[in-house]
Design a protein that fits this description.
The protein has six helices and 18 strands. A hairpin with a 5-residue loop joins strand 15 and strand 16. By secondary structure, it is α+β, with helices and mostly antiparallel strands.
């Protein structure tokens, strides 16, 4: 008998938008090589693997969670965590009123239902200003207003939302940078939105990620300090697009998004 696998579009309420992730709840842990092969087969920006942890009587369940792109394991992923929580509640592995708790390479992460939205509690990963590395501006085709570096990525602020939308970066050159990816952002000109972004991670096997929760762990403190407000609405301007509500809470970031299941199947192998 095969393993159930679900594909969920995260950070959207509409099918075929947001960021798709595959989610597998494993009966026992599997080795890294097998998980990487499955992620390559799924060919999505991330595939999430869950294993239920033993719990004492009366304790709520918790889960080990790992994320893989088609090319590598990653330390933090927002949309596949959102998708994992959605799958656990929808398939009744967790009661709807129970917080989903995940043990990950970035510590314990939680997800909680807030009406039609899911709120993730993640560590903030603020950037520090840094000189632009050689070739970054040319690869993006922009003149940066600001360049920073977080735990994972370069952060580049540009002049306008239109400039973010129209980016056509040289992915081969971005692939050579010694980081997971590059976040490009600006203030929003769209009404009701505070800031916009796009995210490119060719070195991790994802040329452009449709909606990137972990990038907003950097974007949230950055724009919170610039705009002087802890709560904001963000949009990622990929072709699929996605919407996030974000809130800076000390050294944590609360990310809210929606999710919808689009595919169910069985993995044989």
């Amino acid at each position: 008998m095969g393993l159930p696998v679900v594909q969920i579009d995260a950070f959207t309420a509409e099918p075929f938008a947001g960021n798709p992730a595959a989610v597998l709840l494993l009966p026992v842990p599997r080795d890294v090589t097998w998980m990487q092969k499955v992620a390559r087969e799924m060919n999505l920006s991330e595939t999430a693997f869950l294993v239920r942890r033993p719990a004492a009587r009366g304790e709520d369940p918790s889960f080990d969670l790992r994320w893989f792109t088609p090319a590598t394991e990653v330390d933090l992923c927002g949309h596949a965590t959102l998708a994992s929580a959605h799958a656990l509640w929808e398939d009744r592995h967790l009661p709807a009123n129970v917080i989903a708790r995940f043990h990950t390479r970035s510590g314990v992460l939680t997800a909680e239902r807030q009406g039609d939205w899911i709120e993730l509690n993640f560590p903030a990963t603020p950037d520090h200003e840094t000189p632009a590395p050689p070739g970054l501006a040319d690869a993006l085709g922009v003149t940066p207003r600001y360049v920073g570096q977080s735990r994972f990525d370069y952060l580049v602020e540009v002049q306008s939302e239109a400039e973010v939308r129209e980016l056509t970066p040289d992915l081969a050159r971005l692939r050579k940078l010694p980081v997971r990816g590059v976040i490009v952002t600006s203030r929003a000109s769209t009404s009701g939105v505070d800031f916009v972004s796009r995210f490119f991670a060719p070195a991790a096997g994802v040329d452009e990620d449709p909606v990137t929760g972990s990038a907003h762990c950097c974007l949230t403190p950055y724009w919170s300090h610039k705009l002087g407000k802890p709560s904001m609405e963000a949009r990622q301007l990929s072709a699929r697009g996605g919407v996030l509500r974000v809130h800076l809470d000390g050294d944590r970031v609360r990310l809210q998004g929606q999710a919808v299941t689009v595919l169910r199947g069985e993995l044989i192998g």
